[in-house]
């Protein structure tokens, strides 16, 4: 006997190269799966970093670490210089930044500080406009770095002393805006207690947007209060020369020191966020000691902003984990179907090899080796592409899922390479299966129930300090889909058997053969059905969740704005309100007068509240949840109160007026106030002792959303025209659309809203591929069926009918189950994940089911199933009895 010259490697090569198209398809799917699982955690970290930088960028100077305290000035020095007096304090403040350890220390800039005296009245010279000036003197060693002298000169050193020896006037420098508000220029003399101040120079900030002026606004712009009929009050600060400080020891000792460490958030990363928040809180937890008994109490909103951003990122991570885990499940099911198609193609070769003496272990080993050859290069390419595309550092746990996905491919190859007969076994479906199937289904249902219980009990996010997701809980959609699919496949033959019993008595061969085939050997087995159920679930879930988040963001933005348009001003007169209410396109306008410190009395005691007066009919038109309170109740004034106030008795009084509480509402349901409020109609203002108090908040509702900008501009002009020059600076206009645009500019919101449609589209494509692969895997059985049908005389219409019967019941049941699960899953998610951190606002949004969106999603799935079915029919028509049947086989 001649020995074959082809060795084992050659045989394996020839074996794996047969039908290489299927192997390439599986390799592509493996590369996609590994790429997705590798890039997902990196993308989430990148998304967190972008959101963190976006959020902290909005905070501007509020993210800086600021300190407030007192400066230590060493006394008893003989003729001290500014450096001897202030240098130790400056050095210590600089040290406060250098002591910060990375990663916070890497974000910290050069500290700045300003020492101010206590506030005193400054008397303007004769001829200046009548005004009261409240002035502080300020010293800053680097005061000249951010200003330019507009007129005059920089202040010179002062040789006098505040201990009673006062010689020449003390030179100061004031901002240009302060000079205009006081009506003075360089050379003007002001009385300041026992001192005489001389305006040596007038300056303007070099960059008004510099963060320095956010921390020292009184040195750039004065605060002017000008009530009607009252002399305006100008509150400001003025620089002195640092060399003048030695003569003002007593004056500055009674003042305050403010310092700040600038924080640059442009380089912060999400991975360092938790540690940075901890370091910030550690820095602000204790006072910072300065020389000569000085100290600073640091504070910052930096850590709180990080926590809020982390909560939003964790919520987004949870949503993406739930949506993408289903997509990953579909992808793995498709990979399994592809492997099944390859193994089915190898069936004849495996039977022949087994007949020649190969053991089951050898057969499985050969197929596992083929799986390794297919999966390993694809996995490496997928992982490398993910790392190159998103080079974000992650920990070792991020590699667990990609490795498991890649390792599962050889395992599935080996499992599917079980014992094979020459003839394909008929896969009879029965309502009762074997013991292994029952145990597997019980374990699957138990795992799904456990995941659902844990998800509802403790939520999805493992920690707010990192993008940490519990894998078991993230796989809840996959487990639920698998459990429901298993139950559906166990139960669905029962009604089909009833149909089969009915058609047996009829004369339709198509119905009889089709129903029998659907019961005994459906084209789409458990894996294909699972892929279809999970694919439909992902499509419907993504559409419902997308609608829920979009509506939630919109509602939160509207609640934050309070109305379509919100105007704040120091005064909104009734005539101004009437003019705005009459603008074209305005549906309703309500001016709110907020009066803090009102007293609400009853038998239980006295409560301090914020009284809000408005036209409640107009407010009700904008906010139907708020009541209309313009009719007396038994002679008493009706009011509504916030829920955070204690229960109020029947004999309640607001000031001297008797009131009755008709309604209680959520604290944040009333725009402009957050808690402890009492709402009353403005027609009762005089009885409540509040007549003549003007409103400071205006809410406007419009008929046409496209007219918001036009009406907002008109309302702003109307309010500004009615105010004095000083009052115009207090006017701010906010629109709900602007708040919504700001919310949608968030990288997290934009990322989620962009990812959900992509997940739905990918699920549709994978579902189509799953159905196509299931059709391909059943090709041999279908070939025999078509051949037999043609031999016995079935025409093409009857063949199509039987082939449709073969797959339609499973497809229809899978779609119905997937739609039901997709509609139910958002309710599970919203009960376990706090979406308020994601969409904003205080109330977590409930699922919003848009029928049109759901119908479109289901139609897309149906079209996908029809395309796959048409492909199966086309393949069936290409087969001839001569190819599919052998003499004597049937």
TrEMBL record:
TM annotation in the entry: 12-36, 318-343, 363-390, 396-417, 438-460, 472-492, 527-545, 754-781, 802-832, 852-876
UniProt-listed Pfam families: FtsX
Domain called ABC3 transporter permease C-terminal: residue spans: 758-880
N-terminal signal peptide: none
Localization, UniProt: Cell membrane
Superkingdom in the source lineage: Bacteria
Protein family: Belongs to the ABC-4 integral membrane protein family.
Stated name of the protein: ABC3 transporter permease C-terminal domain-containing protein
Protein source organism: Homoserinibacter gongjuensis
